[in-house]
Amino acid sequence: MCDKSHGDIAQIVADSGAVGADLLIAEQVTELVTANHILYAQGVVDAFGHVSVRHATRGDCFLMARNMAPGLVTEQDIIAFDLDCRPMNADGRSVYLERFIHGEIYKARPEVMAVVHSHSPSVVPFGVIKQSPFRAVCHMAAFVGVQPPIFDIRDVAGDGTDLLITDQALGAALAGTLGTNAVVLMRGHGSTAVGDSLRHAVFRAVYTEINARTQAQASQLGEIIFLSEAETRAAALSTEGQSDRAWNLWKRTAQSVHLSLLQQALLTEQ
Ligand SMILES: [Zn+2]
């Protein structure tokens, strides 16, 4: 495990001893900032929600922004965490309450390289309605599958919680419900998507929201013909490798949205 309690990301990289690690981590930090901006521009996160990536050369650490709105994240806001979610270079900055979602999934799923947690608005209804189970309705969201799990915090911590994943035990329970799936819904709260890269997890988070929107629209028109299990497997194989194409487009949109936010901030200061 990472045993440093303080220090900066550069030092953590130096500790890894990997050749070219400093370049790798610089690229990761830049991509993580872009991921934050994309998720905001695509309506997956608003002032809340977060995205993380497993450290490029140290699998027992991950990177995530400090506690702030994703749309405003810069490279200076990225903090390294160990898998018990202790910040390694926070230097007094506050961190996300629900960081345990990330740490416990990284522990449970060694192949997962990135995690997105959001309260994306179209997904929340499917976590609270028993009669309308969430499942893949279009090929781009085939990874959703035919029965994505729903985590109910009441099953683990009883009634009266604030529904947030604020410690390791709750994070481990959520990771257990996620199992080997790509996405887990969280009753009365939101959802969490995982991927084998940052781009992959962002792709899944965006298309989880799109699938929810589409399923809700379709349900108003009549009986839905969902993707079958075989179709979800086949479609996932052909669509999931396309995340770079989506990323490159969404990055442009995100840059435009971010520039607009910066301009608004400048106008406010004047
Ligand atoms: Zn949350």
Automatic annotation (TrEMBL):
Transmembrane segments: none
Superkingdom field: Bacteria
Class II aldolase/adducin N-terminal domain location: 30-216
SUPFAM superfamilies: AraD/HMP-PK domain-like (SSF53639)
Pfam families per the UniProt record, alphabetical: Aldolase_II (PF00596)
Family matches, as Gene3D superfamilies: Class II aldolase/adducin N-terminal domain (3.40.225.10)
UniProt protein name: Class II aldolase/adducin family protein
Organism expressing this protein natively: Mesopusillimonas faecipullorum
Species classification: Bacteria, Pseudomonadati, Pseudomonadota, Betaproteobacteria, Burkholderiales
